[in-house]
Design brief:
CATH superfamily of the largest domain: Ribonuclease H-like superfamily/Ribonuclease H
Oligomer: single chain
CATH architecture of the largest domain: 2-Layer Sandwich
Number of strands: 13
Strand content: 15-25%
Distance between the termini: 63 Å
Largest sheet: 6 strands, antiparallel
CATH topology of the largest domain: Nucleotidyltransferase, domain 5
Number of domains: 2
Length: 399
């Protein structure tokens, strides 16, 4: 659904939300090797009424349905709700079946901005500029100088100045979005987005019927599926998803065998999938789990393309395609594209850890600062030092 003539105005929080992507002006490095990984993509979900940032997501992958679903998942995690109307542009990722299915499941309307009408996307575009000027352009390794190519030398090249990792940048970006920007006065509202949001909720009400519980069932609904959405349970093998078999002990039931069940797979971990059996979602383990565990869908596509280049008649081989793919992923001979995507996926796991409430890990390149203590000129009496030493030491665990 597209807008007819003008963009409608929001009269309460969670009535209209704008979602869009932008590539941040900063170079990032790998937390393990310190090598440059390029610029990340940020996805913002903004409330049109209060200009409050409902969700922020960061990744190295270009905009796709995965970024859209993660933004909606974070929004439900933080607010237990989704906007009733989601405004998007004409990007291919917003026309994804997975994205539209999730919105339809929770009765959300998707509206597309008309092309070549910049003012319809002013809510997100203005916020992109604010995030760059207030936060990103103040970081080491920002690419602001690259606008004037003649001024870029080796000493000031952002690729050589980069020190931030994806996990640490996402942690501070969330702090800026949810604490600094959220409490600063907005020029269009004459109050902070948080205060405007609270005032709007007090007037319009909480609308409990729109609440969405953030549980395992909702997380599975944010995962993609196949074109048909179902797969047949084959005896002794399980369900086949993207040329890979997945197995669960629930498939041993004779009443489940040879029936079609709804399926979902994790695009960030192709080692597991989910099947809807007897009214509940059950976790399924892929064949060759040791090789597929932790691999992303994008890495799988890159490996599949490379495998097809090496063997054009791979369908005629007696060896199964999944086994050949697993052996290729586990082989020593790695391709540059796979290594780069594997580094991206490893950094993305840091983002998932922060979303789940954890902290970003410290880079291995950073050395712990040790402050030497001077024990020569101390004013503490000797008897007081002896009093601080316990008589017995409690052993909590064997080393």
């Amino acid at each position: 659904m597209a807008f007819a003539k003008r963009m409608p105005q929001a009269y309460r929080p969670f009535e209209i939300g704008h979602i869009d992507h932008t590539q941040l002006d900063v170079e990032l490095v790998c937390s393990r090797t310190g090598s440059n990984l390029g610029r990340p993509w940020a996805t913002f979900l903004v409330d049109a009424y209060s200009r409050r940032l409902l969700a922020v997501y960061l990744t190295f992958d270009s905009p796709s349905y995965r970024s859209c679903l993660m933004a909606l998942r974070i929004c439900v995690q933080r607010h237990a709700r989704l906007p009733q109307i989601v405004v998007v542009d004409n990007g291919a990722e917003f026309n994804s079946t997975y994205f539209e299915t999730l919105l339809a499941t929770f009765e959300c309307t998707k509206k597309q901005r008309p092309p070549a009408k910049a003012r319809f996307g002013s809510v997100c575009e203005r916020l992109f500029g604010t995030s760059n000027t207030q936060f990103v352009h103040n970081l080491v390794g920002n690419t602001q100088i690259t606008r004037n190519v003649r001024q870029v030398t080796k000493s000031v090249n952002p690729k050589n100045q980069a020190v931030w990792t994806l996990g640490s940048l996402y942690e501070y970006l969330c702090t800026w979005a949810y604490e600094v920007y959220d409490t600063d006065e907005h020029p269009a509202l004459f109050q902070s987005p948080r205060d405007g949001f609270a005032a709007g909720m007090a007037i319009s009400g909480n609308r409990v019927h729109r609440m969405i519980p953030y549980d395992e069932n909702f997380q599975i609904l944010t995962l993609p599926t196949t074109k048909s959405g179902k797969a047949k349970v084959q005896i002794g093998r399980g369900v086949k998803i993207n040329s890979i078999y997945y197995w669960s002990n629930s498939f041993r039931d004779p009443q489940i065998e040879n029936t079609s069940v709804q399926i979902r797979y994790d695009p960030f971990n192709i080692g597991i999938a989910y099947a809807f059996v007897r009214g509940q979602w059950v976790e399924c383990i892929s064949q060759y789990y040791a090789e597929f565990q932790g691999r992303s869908e994008k890495e799988l596509k890159l490996a599949s393309a490379e495998l097809r280049k090496r063997s054009s008649n791979h369908a005629r081989q007696s060896q199964s395609y999944a086994k050949k793919l697993a052996e290729f992923l586990a082989s020593v001979e790695e391709q540059e594209g796979l290594l780069e995507q594997r580094s991206y996926d490893a950094e993305a796991r840091e983002v998932f850890r922060i979303i789940d409430g954890g902290k970003a890990t410290t880079s291995r390149n950073e050395q712990t600062k040790i402050i030497p203590a001077n024990f020569e000129n101390t004013d503490t009496p000797a008897d007081q030092d002896e009093a601080l030493i316990p008589d017995t030491l409690v052993v909590y665990e064997e080393f």
